[in-house]
From TrEMBL:
Its EC number is 2.7.7.60. Transmembrane segments: none annotated. Keywords: Isoprene biosynthesis, Nucleotidyltransferase, Transferase. Catalyzes the formation of 4-diphosphocytidyl-2-C-methyl-D-erythritol from CTP and 2-C-methyl-D-erythritol 4-phosphate (MEP). HAMAP family: IspD. It holds the Pfam family IspD. The record marks 18, 25 as: Transition state stabilizer. This is 2-C-methyl-D-erythritol 4-phosphate cytidylyltransferase. The record marks 162, 215 as: Positions MEP for the nucleophilic attack. It catalyses: 2-C-methyl-D-erythritol 4-phosphate + CTP + H(+) = 4-CDP-2-C-methyl-D-erythritol + diphosphate. The keyword Transport does not apply. The lineage of its organism: Bacteria, Pseudomonadati, Pseudomonadota, Betaproteobacteria, Burkholderiales. It comes from Variovorax ureilyticus. One of its GO terms (molecular function) is 2-C-methyl-D-erythritol 4-phosphate cytidylyltransferase activity. Pathway: Isoprenoid biosynthesis; isopentenyl diphosphate biosynthesis via DXP pathway; isopentenyl diphosphate from 1-deoxy-D-xylulose 5-phosphate: step 2/6.
Length: 236
């Protein structure tokens, strides 16, 4: 069998309802550029590693062409097949990748457009950990805080053990055929790819990520992301 290729799939069809602001959050400017451009740049920096990079936007997206310069570049795809949920967007995007020539045995690294702080080093660590694994895996981060379980009245019901808890991040890396099959079975309720893989009885690998690879979700996340991105550009 020929060597498996690596593809990147970036779900970019959300509305950013929790972020506030005008328009979808993935096009808002962070550190002087649209958020999704930083996300793309982390993968573009790994020249020659990927057979293709696909951005999946909503069919009625009116922003992507206006906001992104020089996209799609060579080896990049724009799929206007986003769905009502993240799971639907990823499923549709994987089908489009297959139609564009990706094989069932090839790998997809699915990465949120809204995680614009991911670094090439973190992406390389995920690939190194997963490319010889039978299942695949995801970047994830250990909890730094004590974990409380709430009761319905808003009081603490108990304190959970945190040693075995991880926060799921992206990219999440699985074989395209296996992932598409798992997502088709899972429906729209799963919030990440690993959940669909778990539901078919497999155990994804947890690969240590970084607290800086957070998802921009709430208004206050933008200032923090801005500061981190700008600090990375400052030469010593
Ligand atoms: N129907 C959807 C929903 C989400 N996403 C993408 O999935 C990633 C993570 O989702 P989230 O942070 O929840 O983004 P939104 O759905 O945009 O935000 P919100 O839930 O606050 O509306 C984002 O890159 C978002 O664009 C997507 O492609 N299609
Ligand atoms: C995929 C994800 O980023 C993993 O933490 C997350 O589940 C997506 O966020 P959402 O708010 O559930 O769409």
């Amino acid at each position: 069998m020929s060597a498996s290729r690596l593809y990147v799939l970036i779900p970019c069809a959300g509305t950013g309802s929790r972020a506030g602001g005008h328009g979808p959050k993935q096009y808002q400017r962070v550190a002087g550029r649209p958020m999704v451009e930083h996300t793309l740049q982390a993968f573009r920096a790994l020249k020659g590693v990927f057979a293709g990079v696909a951005l999946v936007v909503s069919p009625d997206d009116a922003d992507v062409g206006l906001v992104l310069q020089r996209f799609p570049a060579d080896g990049e795809h724009l799929f206007r097949v986003g769905g009502a949920t993240r799971a639907a967007t990823v499923r549709n995007g994987l089908r489009s990748l297959r139609q564009a020539g990706a094989g069932a045995h090839d790998w997809a690294l699915v990465h949120d457009a809204a995680r614009c702080l991911v670094t090439p080093t973190q992406i390389e660590a995920l690939i190194a950990a997963c490319e010889h694994d039978a299942v695949g895996g995801l970047l994830a981060h250990r909890l730094a805080d004590t974990l409380k379980v709430a009761s319905p009245d808003g009081r603490v019901a108990s304190t959970a053990t945190r040693a075995d808890k991880w926060l799921a991040q992206t990219p999440q890396m699985f074989r395209i055929g296996m992932l598409l099959d798992a997502l088709e079975r899972a429906g729209d309720a799963v919030t990440d790819e690993a959940s669909a893989i778990e539901a078919v009885g497999l155990a994804p690998l947890l690969v240590p990520g970084s607290g800086q690879n957070f998802k921009l979700t709430y208004p206050e996340d933008f200032a923090l992301a801005d500061a981190v991105l700008r600090s990375r550009k400052i030469q010593p």
